Amino acid sequence: MRNIWIIARRDLRAQFNSPVAYVVIGGTLFLVGVLVFLIPHVGNAFMGNFWELDRATMDQMFLYLPPLMCLFVVPAVTMRAIAAEKGSGTLELLITMPVRDSDVILGKFFACLAVVLILLAATLLYPIAMFVWPWHLGPLDWPTVWAGYLGCLLFSSAAVAVGMMLSSLTESDVIAFFMTSATLSILYAIGWMASISPSREVSSTRAPSSISCRSQRFAFS
Amino acid sequence: MSNDVMIYANDLSKSFGSFRALDKINFEVKRGEIVGFLGPNGAGKSTTMRILTCFISPTSGTARVNGHDVFDAPLQVRESLGYLPQRAPLYLEMSVLEYLRFAAELRHLPADTFRKRAKSVVEVCGLAQVLGREIRHLSHGYRQRVGLAQALIHDPPILILDEPTSDLDPNEKAEFLDYLKQIGQERTVMLSTHNLAEVEASCARAIIVSSGRIVADGPLDEIRAKSGRVRYVVSVQESPGTASYRGRGEPPKKSEVETALGAVGGVKKLGDLPTDERAHAFELVSDREVDLRPDVFRLAADKGWVLLELHRDAQTLEDVFRSLTIGDERRNRHVGPESDAGDDEQDGAGDDDADESPRGASRDRHEKTASDRS
């Protein structure tokens, strides 16, 4: 346990020592803001923004968070986890220390997850700003919001695990980023691909295996 | 296995795909020994060290460190080791102190022990001025020292250092080797290097590996004696320049000197050394028992030559190293590591009188036995 904590702490500090974590958190908050509040209803692609919906709900945010995580957040957070250590040779240090391999992996996992959690915590600013202070746009159904966050947490844990595995396959963080991004996006989009499939059988059997389908159950009232 | 054997390797082999990096290596290192692990690049030094530190596992064979098997008890093995990999494993964004603290924490060093150890390690590695600096801003030499400090921080009974001195300047090297000798009295140190002078300065014993096999293992003197030859350097004045010639008659021609020296009894091999136009310089090789110096002096005096230089080199470790490992490399290029089939036939482009292959002939152009000349 102690080893996991030591490794996680070092990794978390490394994340915040590099600009990546700041760019990821800041960039995601910005994108969520734009997507939720500014992009209007356009054809089928966007469901209509927060204002157009005209209801006291954060559904929009939980609609856009998982795809952003897949495309951008999780790949950026996990890309360096093991790839960079391999590239710089520090993995040799960690592995030859008297710690179990599982300690190293878990330590890194929790460090990456912590960055994602910090991002999720930061997105709380939106419901707070809209429904608590400074604005009170209506009575928000908070349990739905918490359920949405729980869904995001579980989803991002799975995504971080996938990202770390892909990061361990290469020495280059750029390659790790794109592999993770592609893998997670495909997993996410299976449901959408199934839904546009002409075969009813495909759409009914494949859709439940997609991340989007799974994550929506948490958030939508 | 006695208690004093700290590192024990038995028939260690490691293959990467079809490439055999290690081929049944056997050795033991006892407590208090400093062993130099020598070999050309790609000989298997790092591979052996990585196996001993449980970074990779051997394809076959067993290894024990401090009595623990690398397969069955890797954690105990790692606990008793300080390891500096070839490329110092540094987190560039950490400061030196943070990095050392991290290493100490992973080894569960209590804070006050860490403070005490850090003090002495910092002193030994000369890190006092850079403690607070980020590692990314340090020069190569300093980075190497930080890596070293990491390996020493927990005062391990066994140190495995993969080319620890490769980036140090000569002063630092000397200091470091002194320190190694100091701590090596009750600890076991295994260091790999290509630099033979270092081995001579710090190690009592050397293991020479070449293409995955141990070609020599023993005390330095023993290894040095292996080739049993002594080398002499003779140079005779060719032209006095502006000064007047102090010898008898005309200065000798090169061929004249070469012929005469070749005829000296006991000369096994004669080669010319590059010089300017003032002197002829030659390299003689003889067996260990005979001393050629009186004969060479007599020859020069009789002929009336001006002898500028005459000295005798005991066979250096370098020569032994070269003679032990070069043959192997050559064989590998032609046959590959798996096969031991006669190397000369492969060299000789179908020439069945294997010994006088074209390559061998050109290499030994200057080799003349004394009997040829007499």
Characterization of this structure:
The complex is a heterodimer of chains A (221) and B (374). With 221 residues, chain A is an all-alpha fold. Chain A has helices at 2-17, 19-38, 50-53, 59-78, 83-88, 90-96, 101-123, 125-131, 142-167, 173-195, 200-206, 211-219. Chain A starts with a helix and ends with a helix. The mean pLDDT of chain A is 87. With 374 residues, chain B is an alpha/beta fold. In chain B, helix 4 packs antiparallel against helix 5. Chain B has a six-stranded mixed beta sheet, sandwiched between helices. At the A-B interface, helix 1 and helix 6 of A face helix 2 and helix 3 of B.
Summarize the structure.
The complex is a heterodimer of chains A (about 220) and B (about 375). Chain A is mostly helical and about 220 residues long.
Element layout with pairings:
The complex is a heterodimer of chains A (221) and B (374).
Chain A (H helix, E strand, L loop, with lengths): L1 H16 L1 H20 L11 H4 L5 H20 L4 H6 L1 H7 L4 H23 L1 H7 L10 H26 L5 H23 L4 H7 L4 H9 L2
Helix pairs in contact in A: 1-7, 2-4, 2-7, 4-7, 4-9, 4-10, 4-12, 7-9, 9-10, 9-12, 10-11
Chain B lengths: L4 E12 L2 E12 L3 E5 L6 H8 L7 E6 L2 E2 L4 H6 L1 E4 L11 H11 L4 H15 L14 H13 L5 E5 L7 H14 L4 E6 L2 H7 L2 E6 L2 E7 H5 L4 E9 L16 H9 L4 E7 L5 E9 L5 H11 L3 E7 L3 H19 L7 H5 L10 H6 L6 H4 L1
Parallel strand pairs in B: 3-8, 3-9, 6-7, 7-8
Antiparallel strand pairs in B: 1-2, 1-4, 4-5, 9-10, 11-13, 11-14, 12-13
